[in-house]
Amino acid sequence: APGPGAARHALDADGDAAAWRSPPVLPVPTRPLPWGDVNFLATSDTHGWLRGHQHNTWPEPNYSGDFGTFASFAEHMRAQADERGVDLLLVDAGDHHDGSGLVSTSPASAVAADNIFAQLTYDVLAIGNHELYKYESALDVYEHNQKGRWAGRYLTSNVNITVEERGRAVSVPVAERFAKFETRQGRRVTAFGVLFDFKAHDRNLTVQAPTKLAREAWFLDAIAEAPDFFLLVGHMPGRGLTSEWSPLFDAIRALHPTVPVFVFGGHTHVRDCVQYDDRSIALVPGRYLETIGFVSSSLPGAEDDGGALDMNRRYLDANDVTYQYHTGTDEDTFHTPVGRNISSALAQLAQELQIDIPFGTVPHDYFLARHPYGHPRSVLTLIAEKILPEVLEDQKRRGPRIIIGNAGTLRFDVFKGPFDRNDELTVSPFTSAFLYTRLPAFLATEVFAEMNRAGASKLLPTTAREDVEARATRIYNDWLADQWDEHVAATLLGADDDALAFGSPDKKPHTLGYVTRDACKGRGDDIPHIPVPFSRDQVDFIMSPPPDAPDDEVVDVVVMDFAMDDFLTAVHTVDPTSKLTLDDFEPYAEGTLVNAVFGKYASREWE
Ligand SMILES: Nc1ccn([C@@H]2O[C@H](COP(=O)(O)O)[C@@H](O)[C@H]2O)c(=O)n1
């Protein structure tokens, strides 16, 4: 049974009616959830994928549930929690913006999508870096928080915005700094919402490093009294050298050695889990509404011996089969009025935005990372070698040129079948413009190589930790690459996938998806999968094919504005005598933004 979205593109996958008649069959979970005294459902990095994944190329059908069906699931889970006499809390760790037609069509569409998101009541939400690239996005969060959109539960413990109050500019928290509340079972919770030490935010926004936050008087005051548990939700990784939770966790532990601490992270897009000690657990629930994270825990009883708590986690594939299995419902009993309202509001918004009208039909799948850069079916190769050279046109500049951009501007695969504005914004949501200067062709090529050698500076969660595996995209890519390499190695050694089959040959995985190795006990994935192929040969920057011109000929060098600081740094590394600055650049193909080049190409080449 596919989710609602799968049907929309059921004809697309093979372009014939057979695909319509045989929609993808999703595996059914086999292990009930390990409920505890307190339970959590966690989302993060949804990036506007509220209509779910709508294509039939695997592993997309795994994630075909939309936010409406997730809301129905959450409501049934809340009802189950009440029946069991336990708590169920919903948390979200940020990055609602940038990533689908709903949120990336315009600032107004992002507001509309967030209003639909807010129809499902969350217990705690945190802000992500994608809410801070543009001042207006953060201002929207601030203004809607003032109007009560998240009912005081959107927490921005270390993020401020400068706004005008009574004719004066003042820096104030974007939303609430913390929340103290009681659960339905009467447990006292102290909660914070934290962002990593993000540097690439817009003007008039401030992010305080978590290390500094942990020393703030108001923070120490807020944690002074022991609640029944602490709840830390934040847009940052859960573990490893990159973890920025330690200052906050350590400050809490210094005062409260045995109070349970539940941490929900994000930003890295991976499924991950770690226990900092035997009364804490940190979970990262993936990205793009692909995964719903579940965490459960026992809580200390009246006679607390200070011993280990029973803490568990599960990563649920976000689809209706998963939701109905875990709530004991079926198609007739599953959908709740709130869930239905959300699904139809999302469909209506998509219709108003006109994001489902196809530009053309893609002849075959292109993948973001299944193939190396340079492979004809890589999305990065497609944009660098075909799309930008063909559709980036400046009427006044017709001579030879080299185009350089950051690969991070591309966020997803391009699937065979109809290609619409939603698909376009999914693969390329950002509004980066193009600028050009004049340089010898050989220098531009060397600068491009240097940019990839140095890596993308804006991927770093903290500039102080440049030498550690701190790049969010890298963490996600390494995670996928490890899954694939392990699978390939096992296959070469003649082993089959029994190791992944939860010990039973009849439960052998047969669908592509995530195969998670994390640092918590037992198996985290709800459904065993075969990992998605992944090539480690990826790049941070892409370049169009060099022009047919002598190496020393001076050509137009066109740079995407988001990559500009890395470009200039690389120029000065390659040629320390260079005086090149941003002032030496002029707009190129003015009015053309990177989020519109795929559609232009699709209309011409894939019609
Ligand atoms: N205007 C922008 C903003 C961001 N990017 C890319 O996104 C990366 C951050 O995304 P996460 O989901 O990892 O937070 C950033 O490093 C850029 O690669 C962009 O291209 N243009």
Give a description of the structure.
- The protein is α/β, with parallel strands linked by helices and 607 residues long.
- It folds into 2 domains: 4-300 and 307-353, Metallo-dependent phosphatases (Purple Acid Phosphatase, chain A, domain 2, 4-Layer Sandwich), CATH 3.60.21.10; 358-456 and 540-605, 5'-Nucleotidase, C-terminal domain (5'-nucleotidase,  domain 2), CATH 3.90.780.
- The chain contains 18 helices and 24 strands.
- A 6-stranded mixed beta sheet has the order 4-3-2-1-14-15, covered by helices on one side.
- Strand 10, helix 9 and strand 11 form a beta-alpha-beta unit.
- Helix 5 packs antiparallel against helix 12 (337-353) and helix 15 (441-454) packs across helix 17.
- The two termini are 31 Å apart.
- The ligand Nc1ccn([C@@H]2O[C@H](COP(=O)(O)O)[C@@H](O)[C@H]2O)c(=O)n1 binds at residues 95, 129-130, 133, 267, 406, 408-409, 430, 432, 456, 458-459, 472-473, 562.
- InterPro entries: 5'-Nucleotdase_C_sf, 5_nucleotidase/apyrase, Calcineurin-like_PHP, Metallo-depent_PP-like, Nucleosidase_C, Pesterase_C1039.
- It comes from Vanrija albida.
Q: Would you report the number of β strands?
A: 24
Span from first to last CA? 31 Å
For the largest beta sheet, what order do the strands appear in spatially? 4-3-2-1-14-15
Listed once per kind, the bound small molecules are: the ligand Nc1ccn([C@@H]2O[C@H](COP(=O)(O)O)[C@@H](O)[C@H]2O)c(=O)n1
User: Which class best fits the helix and strand makeup?
Assistant: alpha/beta
